[in-house]
From TrEMBL, chain A:
Pfam families: CO_deh_flav_C, FAD_binding_5. Residues 1-221 form the FAD-binding PCMH-type domain. SUPFAM superfamilies: CO dehydrogenase flavoprotein C-terminal domain-like, FAD-binding/transporter-associated domain-like. PROSITE patterns: FAD_PCMH. This is Hydroxylase molybdopterin-containing subunit. InterPro entries: CO_DH_flav_C, CO_DH_flav_C_dom_sf, Diverse_Substr_Oxidored, FAD-bd_PCMH, FAD-bd_PCMH-like_sf, FAD-bd_PCMH_sub1, FAD-bd_PCMH_sub2, Mopterin_DH_FAD-bd. The keyword Oxidoreductase applies. The lineage of its organism: Bacteria, Bacillati, Actinomycetota, Actinomycetes, Pseudonocardiales. Signal peptide: none annotated. Keywords: Oxidoreductase. GO terms for molecular function: FAD binding; oxidoreductase activity.
TrEMBL record, chain B:
Gene3D superfamilies: Aldehyde oxidase/xanthine dehydrogenase, a/b hammerhead, Aldehyde oxidase/xanthine dehydrogenase, molybdopterin binding domain. Pfam families: Ald_Xan_dh_C, MoCoBD_1, MoCoBD_2. One of its GO terms (molecular function) is oxidoreductase activity. It comes from Gandjariella thermophila. Residues 15-123 form the Aldehyde oxidase/xanthine dehydrogenase a/b hammerhead domain. The keyword Oxidoreductase applies. Keywords: Molybdenum, Oxidoreductase. The keyword rRNA-binding does not apply. This is Acylaldehyde oxidase.
From TrEMBL, chain C:
Pfam families: Fer2, Fer2_2. PANTHER family: OXIDOREDUCTASE WITH IRON-SULFUR SUBUNIT, OXIDOREDUCTASE, IRON-SULPHUR BINDING SUBUNIT-RELATED-RELATED. Keywords: 2Fe-2S, Iron, Iron-sulfur, Metal-binding, Oxidoreductase. The lineage of its organism: Bacteria, Bacillati, Actinomycetota, Actinomycetes, Pseudonocardiales. GO terms for molecular function: 2 iron, 2 sulfur cluster binding; metal ion binding; oxidoreductase activity, acting on the aldehyde or oxo group of donors. It comes from the Bacteria. This is (2Fe-2S)-binding protein. Signal peptide: none annotated. Residues 5-81 form the 2Fe-2S ferredoxin-type domain. Pathway: Alkaloid degradation; nicotine degradation. Coiled coil: none annotated.
């Protein structure tokens, strides 16, 4: 870890000015950045501690929920409104990491987590275009078991690891960011980038910008919602595959649904076709639901070694719908 | 709650005052950071250290040429037979090539990233399974590579029913929570080492030989080991490297392996491929048993995972044939890991027994009962004690096995299929010498000193119990001091041997003290000393198995092993491929149990290790890069609290005075044996899927 | 070092003023600078929980906390838990239930358990299993840890501390 200078800020504009300096990184909860520093994934010259910024509140308004970027995962999960009215959100937070990490990690930092691809995370730099652009993708023809089945490119086959992002995608949430030019609002479904030929650009956040808040619209109707996380270990593990479902029901008939998958692409994968196809189906009609979901996997391109993810993701989506 | 002695070392561990190697005072020490190879083979052609040397805080960067000359030593005691820094030929990825010494850890770690190496003649690493099987040689071959009795081919031909199947187990890493740590300090020709090792004796002997000084010049401290499970048994290159660096710089050096380095520099359990053939008559009596094995090994050392070992004494077959081979690959050196040999081996044998029971339409417990041998089936020698039948019957009773419907998939709860499976367990009983010194002061207070290091198995409590029992005094009157090579030697805290050797030695020391005092057990010690006109009494006790050195289980005309049965209930969500163990019952025969509280903990730990082997643990060896892919605890997953449900542990009465003077045998490794087979057998019962490859992952269970 | 940063931290009730390398984690600072070696470094990557301490009353991983970011904070380590030679009820429950073996993860387990109870996450065995899953015990004393946390929680009055 190269040495760096350390600066605390308590004002957003001061923070943004500091972040415009070259080789500067923001640190909040530290649970990701400190890992990057230790592995040499990032080597900033300056670190700006933004935990003093007034961005940690959680507000419930008639328009919905506004979660400050610096709110800790544990605090958001325990917020009474989140717990009662947005189960998918609370579940996605509580099924992530561990109690200690959730006490540290912030909402903004969670969304900026980078892939858990083992090639990217290695103790020394392996061929990885996300880590060293142009160095290749050792995962493409290597161990693909944890890699993407949607939206990958020859340059990168990684998935994004955030559970929260999947829930936010299913909630049609918005990521609010601020930079020199003012505020921008990015749909949660578009915040993470598919790799294309620029896998080193992980998200739509631009250099010098900060996430300030996440907004969840009230009309997301999240009372019937569920986050299903499939993993080998019962706890404290990233998802193999996950599914977030938000459902509107009339009796047992689905009248509306939003479905997002995690662990299958470098962005929460919304199943728009399936969302329409399940309308009118009974939530207990598993074969029909499975057929509707499977029909929306036309774009899936499994890699040799992760074909199982197609079956798994389809079933996880159906299970999440039924549990919502 | 199980009763027994709470640990005398407990308060220190619970308040953070128990001292582990990295806790030694390092205020004047240099911090060391290793630079390691990034290729699996070829040659190191150049090392550029100037940038690192110029980095802030750096005192020295040592390469091979900077090291003092070191003596030659074999494996064991070495874990991997190479000098501590590489000279030319690369044996594996992650091999030390330089060590950076700086004033602080932050400085050393950064400077280590500035060392650049050049390599030549690097070729793709050959994966396990694609190299030639060869017969291993040397000190890392435990037991015979080939054993046989009778005619297996004829036995299989004569069988009414036979099964043959191939099973695989994965590369696994010990992953103790404490990384290897060594603090080395020279004072003239005297070396003091604080090192996280499972044997201060091995470390002392190895360092003395390497540096050409008498053993008494090397003092090794290790009162507490933060978990070892085998990876701290032998002397790995970083230990002499820390000592060499301290020698060269004239300053104490502290070298703590990073978690990533723990994946290449302290051994692992190698992947195995095993084939088992069983033949039986229609009433379930074995006619033949063949168990062959091959494991991934390194370029050097020939570490052999002798997986068929247990198959040579487990069942009464008239014909038995085993063989074990290795493949020499460009990988880090493997080493024994809880549980070695029988751990992976009994997965294969006990899975095959379940397959045979299914083919016969026979209850799997009954099949095992029908093949219980009177004497060791390979040698014809008597068992010192063998209570497998009792373990099987008691396990079945405690589990409620008689309620089992043998039909596949017959139990369901919501999304989940429930399966019940079982396996038998065994471990060899190697034994080794040990010794202890006992002192009684005029107040009757007893101190026992021994070179043993406490690794979590509860040895201080055991020593306390044996001394108190022999002397007839309250256990709280006995204090135990340990983990110093100046104390009477104990071979090592590995191989489930410590209780037998050390317990017997402590008993001998206590008996000798009573004899010197002319006292009977239970006589007040202060009074006995006063009567003898003494203010202090010292006695020593030694114990060793027949022959005086380390032995394996078949010794002195006896066949000495431990036994157990494990019954598990699994829940499989076939939709999502999820496998969980909802309950487990383990019943064990491991000699006399000296401390039921600690013994129960040991078996719970072992069963959890078995769960890890069965369901979670796998180090992926990346063939294109020739390295273990994920050198961290997010990529190599071990069980967490939420994975482990109800575990019922009990022991049958057993008292083996052949194995040790105190009737005890070793149990540390036994609990981890058989669990993976029981889980795989339960998965078959739940789903009809026979998974022969560990770990059993989601993709195995998705239809 | 020129870029060292002055940090004031209250550790186990005592104010400590130190200059730290901004790269130093709270784990290393507690151990190497303040001599509090009860806090252990296991994985150094937030993957094992051995380094768990309380910062401002909340359990966090000290290996993922840069010491500079703890400026002004109140830190409690395992050394600060018991007072006057008396074990804390959590420590006592761990001892009686044999909820540790090698002892290396134990300080982290104990700190995590204290917080788990204070958070109100110790109301059932299943809840304890989940909320104690951030602390890996490779010796695997998990059932005993669950029993200890339940016992200490009962003694401490559930969420009360």
């Amino acid at each position: 870890m190269r040495t760096f200078s350390y600066h605390r800020v308590s004002d957003v504009d001061v923070a943004l000015a500091a972040l415009r300096q070259p080789e500067t990184q923001a640190i909040a909860g530290g649970t990701e950045l400190v890992n990057w520093l230790k592995e040499g994934i990032e080597a900033p010259a300056r670190l700006v501690d933004i935990t003093g910024l007034p961005l940690a509140g959680v507000e419930s308004t008639p328009d919905g929920l506004r979660i400050g970027a610096l709110a800790r995962m544990s605090d958001v999960a325990a917020h009474p409104v989140v717990r009662d009215r947005y189960p998918v959100l609370a579940q996605s937070l509580l099924r992530a990491a561990s109690a200690q990490l959730r006490n540290m990690a912030t909402i903004g930092g969670n969304l900026l987590q980078r892939t858990r691809c083992p090639y990217f995370r290695a103790d020394t730099a392996l061929p990885c275009n996300k880590r060293v652009p142009g160095s290749g993708c050792a995962a493409r023809h290597g161990d693909t078991s944890a890699q993407a089945i949607f939206g990958w490119s020859e340059h990168c086959v990684a998935t994004h690891p955030s559970d929260l992002a999947v829930a936010l995608a299913a909630l049609d949430a918005t990521i609010v960011v601020r930079g020199e030019a003012g505020e921008r609002r990015i749909p949660a479904t578009e915040f993470h980038r598919l790799p294309g030929d620029e896998p080193e650009r992980h998200t739509e956040l631009r250099a010098g910008e900060l996430i300030t808040a996440v907004e969840v619209p009230a009309e997301s109707g999240a009372e019937h919602s569920h986050y299903l996380k499939v993993r080998e270990r019962v706890s404290y593990e990233f998802a193999v595959v996950s599914a977030a479902a938000v459902v509107q029901l009339s009796g047992t008939t689905i009248t509306g649904a939003r479905l997002a998958l995690g662990g299958v692409a470098h962005r929460p994968w919304r199943l728009g076709g399936a969302e329409q196809a399940v309308v009118g189906l009974s939530v207990s009609d598993r074969p029909a639901l499975l057929a509707a979901v499977a029909a929306d996997f036309g774009d899936a391109r499994p890699l040799p070694g992760n074909e199982y993810k197609i079956t798994l993701a389809q079933r996880a989506a159906v299970r999440a719908l039924q549990a919502a | 709650m199980t009763t027994g002695l709470t640990r005398p070392d407990g308060p220190a561990k619970l308040t953070g005052t128990a001292h582990y190697a990295a806790d030694a005072d390092t205020s004047d020490a240099l911090a060391a950071a290793l630079v390691t190879t990034t290729v699996p083979n070829g040659r190191l052609t150049a090392l550029h250290t100037a940038d690192a040397e110029a980095a802030p805080g750096v005192v020295r960067v040592l390469t091979r040429a900077d090291l003092p000359p070191l003596g030659e030593l074999s494996t064991p005691p070495l874990g991997f037979p190479v000098p501590p820094l590489l000279e030319d030929t690369v044996h594996h990825e992650g091999e030390p090539i330089a060590v950076v010494l700086a004033e602080t850890w932050e400085q050393a770690r950064h400077a280590a990233t500035l060392v650049r190496a050049e390599y030549a003649d690097v070729t793709p690493a050959v994966p396990f399974g694609q190299a030639e099987d060869v017969v291993p040689h040397g000190g890392l071959v435990f037991g015979e590579t080939d054993e046989s009795k009778g005619d297996v081919t004829a036995g299989l031909a004569a069988a009414d029913v036979s099964v043959t199947a191939t099973y695989t187990t994965a590369d696994r890493h010990h992953s103790p929570i404490e990384p290897h740590a060594t603090l080395a300090r020279w004072d003239g020709d005297q070396l003091v080492l604080h090192s996280s090792v499972q044997s201060v004796l091995f470390a002392q002997a190895a360092l003395a030989a390497l540096f050409g000084v008498p053993p008494e010049n090397v003092r090794v401290f290790c009162p507490f080991v933060g978990g070892g499970f085998g990876c701290k048994g032998f002397v790995w290159p970083h230990i002499p490297l820390a000592a060499a660096a301290a020698r060269v710089t004239g300053r104490p050096v502290k070298l703590v392996l990073t978690r990533a380095q723990m994946f290449t520099l302290a051994g692992h359990q190698p992947a195995t491929r095993q084939t088992v053939s069983l033949g039986a008559t229609s009433d379930g009596r074995l006619t033949a048993l063949r168990h062959t094995s091959s494991n991934a090994s390194a370029q050097l050392g020939d570490y052999c995972e002798n997986t068929p070992h247990g198959s040579t004494w487990m069942y009464a077959s008239p014909a038995i044939e085993t063989s074990t081979r290795i493949q020499r690959l460009h990988r880090p050196g493997p080493t024994p890991m809880r549980s070695p040999h029988e751990g992976p081996g009994m997965f294969a044998l006990e899975s095959a027994m379940d397959e045979l029971a299914h083919e016969l339409g026979m209850d799997p417990v009954e099949l095992r009962l029908r093949n219980e041998p009177e004497v060791d089936p390979l040698t014809g020698e008597p068992f010192s004690s063998r209570k497998l039948v009792e373990c099987l019957r008691e396990g079945a009773r405690r589990f409620g096995w008689s309620e089992r419907n043998p039909e596949i998939g017959s139990m369901r709860d919501g999304h989940e299929l429930i399966g019940w499976g079982m396996a038998a367990a065994t471990m060899d009983s190697p034994r080794s010498p040990s010794s202890a010194r006992l002192r009684i002061d005029h107040t009757g207070h007893v101190v026992v000193e021994t070179g043993m290091q406490e690794i979590g198995t509860g040895l201080p409590a055991m020593v306390q119990a044996v001394a108190a029992e022999t002397l007839g005094c309250p256990p709280e009157d006995v204090a135990v001091r340990h983990g110093d090579s100046d104390f009477p030697p104990h071979t090592g805290t590995f191989g489930s041997m410590s209780t037998m050797g050390l317990g017997s030695a402590v008993r001998a020391a206590a008996e000798s003290a009573l004899e010197k005092l002319g006292a009977e057990p239970g006589d007040p010690l202060a009074g006995a000393l006063a009567e003898a006109g003494l203010t202090e009494l010292e006695s020593e006790g030694r114990w060793s198995p027949e022959g005086g050195g380390m032995t394996r289980g078949r010794t002195g005309g006896y066949s000495i092993h431990t036994y157990g049965s494990i019954f598990v209930e699994v829940r499989v969500d076939p939709d999502l491929g999820l496998l969980r163990m909802s309950r487990a019952v383990g019943v064990y025969a491991g000699g006399r149990i000296l401390n039921p509280l600690a013994a129960r903990s040991q078996m719970i730990g072992g069963i959890t290790w078995g769960y890890g082997q069965a369901v979670l643990e796998q180090s992926v060896f990346e063939p294109n890069l020739g390295r273990f892919l994920s050198k961290n605890l997010a990529g190599y997953i071990v069980p967490v609290n939420a994975d482990i449900g109800e575990i019922d542990v009990s022991f049958v009465d057993d008292d083996d005075r052949v194995a040790s003077a105190i009737g005890a045998k070793g149990i540390g490794e036994l609990g981890a044996v058989g669990v993976s087979a029981a889980i795989a057998n339960a998965v078959f019962h739940a789903t009809g899927r026979r998974v022969r490859d560990l770990p059993i992952r989601i993709h195995h269970l998705l239809p | 070092m020129s870029n060292h940063v002055a940090v004031t931290v209250r550790v186990n009730g005592v104010d400590r003023e130190i200059e730290v390398d901004p790269r130093a984690t709270l784990t290393e600072t507690l151990r190497d600078r303040l001599g509090l070696t009860g806090t252990k470094k296991g994985c150094d990557r937030g993957e094992c929980g051995a380094c768990t301490v309380l910062v401002n009353g909340r359990r966090v991983l000290s290996c993922m906390t840069l010491a500079v970011t703890a400026h002004g904070a109140e830190v409690t380590t395992v050394e600060g838990l018991s007072s006057g030679g008396e074990l804390h009820p959590v420590q006592r429950a761990f001892l009686e239930n044999d909820a540790f073996q090698c002892g290396f993860c134990t300080p982290g387990q104990v700190m995590s358990a204290v917080a788990c109870i204070a958070e109100g996450h110790a109301t059932s065995d299943d809840e304890i299993r989940e909320w104690m899953s951030g602390n890996i015990c490779r010796c695997a004393a998990y059932p005993q840890i669950v029993a200890s946390v339940a016992k200490a929680a009962a003694e401490l009055g559930g969420a009360a501390r």
